[in-house]
Amino acid sequence: MHSDTVKLKIFRKDHGEKSPGRHDEFEVPVTEGMSVLDAVNYVVENIDSTISVRWNCKAAHCGSCAAEINNYPRLMCKTRIDDIGAEITVNPMGAFPHVKDLVTDLSGNFEIDRNIPEFKPKKGIELPWNIKEQDVTRAQEFRKCIECFLCMDVCHVIRNHSSKYIGPRHIIKAAALDMHPLDTVDRSVSLMNDKGLSLCNVTKCCQEVCPEHIKITDNAIIPEKERAIDKMYDPALMLFDKLKAIGKSGSR
Amino acid sequence: MNKAIKKYIPAEFLEFNPRLYAFILIIAIAVIAFFIFPVKELNGYIDPFYSPTILVLPFVGLYRLTCYAYRKDYNKHIFKHPLACPVVESMDSKKREYSGETSAIFKIENMHRYFLYAAIIILPFFFYDVYTSLFYTGAFVLRLGSIILAINAVLLTLYVFSCHSLRSLIGGRTDCFSCLNGGTLRKKIYNKQSWLNAHHEELAWISLIFIIFVDLYLRGLAAGMPIDFTFMVIH
Predict the structure, then answer these.
(1) Does A1 have pLDDT greater than 50?
(2) Which of the four pLDDT bands, split at 50, 70 and 90, describes residue B1?
(3) Which of A19, A39, A142, B128 could be A176's S-S partner, Cβ–Cβ 3.0 to 4.6 Å?
(4) Are residues A86 and A114 in the same domain?
(5) pTM score over 0.90
(6) From CA B156, how far away is CA B161, in angstroms rounded?
(7) Residue A118 domain flag
């Protein structure tokens, strides 16, 4: 650390306020291992208790403290002050409706989640379900998601271009269901046609900001695109799948 | 903008974009150079751009253009959608029109797998070129150029076999490996390919730079530069 204090600029705007908002500056004494969340909490506890900030576990497990730190979407609790320098700007996530100061309204995400076709298991499977490890390892990666929505915040399609695209977080939810060995629903074509999957231009920013290091683009978005292409653009594979299905029904 | 135009020419191509013009200019100069100054074969070395024939170049070019690794690069650095991930440096804005991969031209990206099939068919020719360069006099001659051609062939193979579309065909589209005959082996191949796939971007760039280096090396030889060495001759 270069100095004993750090200059913290926190975005301030009240709920429903018409102005574009402002940044309040605070000098915060630095302690060893201090995170940006610690610094914000220092301000709330010692200087200005009217600042609204959402946080919970302080261990990068709940995803509540997601914000834009020096314009880069990160978890405040996982970002150490000594990693970023003496001047730190903290903004709320700009892709979501603003509530107050650093708090944004994330409820739209849960609405999108509800519109993803739910898990539908194959009929007639005996209980308890017997699933081999090799069949679930891919989908398990997506279960690490802590729903911080940093991937949604960094996505330029959501921020600037289209509300039609459901976003990386929801693609990994759909991919986790699609890759489940007992699931019978295919979500890829509806993702492509109705949920804006083809608006993603694979710039991998979502993957870059994910605090859980989920390979969102490589392991969820691209596989879902490829699955949709199987059904929409690949006549050879479509014929192969049809013949396989006829073969299966004939052998029964 | 006229809707009919928009359907066929995406907004990304209608913006004033010097980066795009520079890219098109470089490609145009390269293609013209290939035809005006061809170095197809020299002392048993066959230029990879002309192997097996320069007519396959559009397929190879389209394979690279529709590749997921390069899509990231040109969407960022040519079209600036976005230029960078930090939100203020993205150079993207609500004012700019955007079509993603929905417009006619970008829809060709969905054909990536067909160009993959073409690339897999073309790959053995590069290894045949290595063989030709080793035995072109009738005896076995190991020269620096042959080693360079061999490295090029291996890099291109690694690049093609680390493809995302191939990953999907090997196992990405399979939900239940244990339900298939030989599913465990397939999952193992899928895992190995996934490891390779994680390096797809590096391989894409290394193989591209190397193939250009091979072309320049052969052109250097054709210009009479003393840059080839013979290590071994077996009669």
Answers:
(1) no
(2) low
(3) A142
(4) no
(5) yes
(6) 8
(7) yes
Interchain CB contact of B91 with A (< 8 Å): no
d(CA B165, CA A236): 14
Mind telling me how many Å the CA of A165 is from chain B's nearest CA?
A: 11
Q: Which residue in the set B72, B92, B102 is minimally distant from A156, CB to CB?
A: B92
Residues in Cβ contact with A104 at an 8 Å cutoff, skipping those fewer than 6 apart: A92, A93, A96, A97, A98
Does residue A189 have a pLDDT over 50? yes
**How many independent structural domains does chain A possess?**
2
Contacts of residues A228-234 at CB distance under 8 Å and 24 or more positions apart, as own/partner, are: A228/A188, A228/A189, A228/A191, A228/A192, A228/A197, A229/B110, A229/B113, A230/A188, A230/B168, A230/B173, A231/A186, A231/A188, A231/A189, A232/A189, A232/A192, A232/B110, A233/B110, A233/B111, A234/B113
Residue A252 included in any domain: no
Rounded to the nearest 5 degrees, what angle is found at the Cα of A69, between the Cα atoms of B91 and A64?
120
Contact yes or no for A159 and B92 at CB 8 A? yes
Average pLDDT, chain A: 93
Does A129 lie in the same domain as A14? no
Residue A144 sits in which domain range? 107-235
Q: What angle do the packed helices B183-197 and A133-142 form, to 10 degrees?
A: 30
| CB atoms B98 and A202 under 8 Å | no
Q: Read off the CATH number of the domain in which A168 is found.
A: 1.10.1060.10
* Cβ–Cβ contact B182 with A under 8 A: no
CB contact B193 to A (< 8 Å) = no
Measure in Å the smallest separation between the Cα of B232 and chain A Cα atoms: 44
| CB-CB under 8 Å, B93 with A160 | yes
Mutate to test the interface with A, among B79, B91, B173 (most CBs of A within 10 A): B173
Question: B4 and chain A: CB distance < 8 Å anywhere?
Answer: no
B82 touches chain A (CB under 8 A): yes
pLDDT above 60 (res A2): no
Are A237 and A183 spatial neighbours (Cβ–Cβ below 8 Å)? no
Closest-CA residue of chain A to B76: A203
3-state secondary structure of B46: strand
ipTM: 0.94
**Given CB atoms, is B168 within the 8 Å cutoff of chain A?**
yes
Residue A250 lies in a domain: no
Q: If pLDDT is split at 50, 70 and 90, which confidence band does A3 have? A: low
Determine which of B110, B187, B188, B203 to mutate to test the interface with A (most A C-beta atoms within 10 Å): B110
Distance CA A247, CA A8 (A): 66
pLDDT, mean of residues B192-197:
97
Q: Are residues A111 and A209 in the same domain?
A: yes
A69 with A115, same domain? no
Encode pLDDT of A70-93 as tens digits: 999 999 999 999 989 889 999 999
